[in-house]
Amino acid sequence: MFPEIERTLFTKHQIATRVQELAQEIVRDLETDLAKDDHSLQDENRVIIIPIMTGAMIFVADLIRELPVKLSLGLTSVRSYPGASISSKGAHLESDLPDNLTGKHIIVLDDILDSGQTLALVKAIILKQKPASLRLGVMLDKQTPRTIDVKCDYVGFQIPDEFVVGYGLDYDGYYRNHPEIVILNQAAIPKR
Questions:
Q1: Residue of 59, 105, 142, 151 with fewest CB within 10 Å of its CB?
Q2: pTM for this prediction
Q3: Catalytically annotated residues
């Protein structure tokens, strides 16, 4: 079905196991954060997950089903890999971030930490709203030189400096539906 796949980095089982572990880490942190809140505010919706679309959609869908916490979603979209690009072209916000984040516990989730530009951009905008807490998470942390130093609180897997697809990650809009995280055969990526 996907003859362009060179090799699998992480199987469906490995991904599912790691997502469950990440959920446990997030729940522990949220319990600590929420315990510090003013008790009169605890009935409000205090936890907001912000997935960066479209790459994080599958990761976030799996992760939030493992979180036994009252939360809401606030979607945003950032473009850094236009079209058939295999390297970041700079992060550009394509949709507004939620504007009601003051005093809330925010977790931003993305598919991959590569150049650092996407998460740095989103983090800077959110911090201006003065959230009670802000944490960053990614499914993949690519071991590559970064243009911006960004630290994530939650990391699914570290990967080598290779172009990956599957589990929400794409190449030219394709392969997001592949259930594993894989590397494409170089012949599938046209030279530009």
A1: 151
A2: 0.88
A3: 114
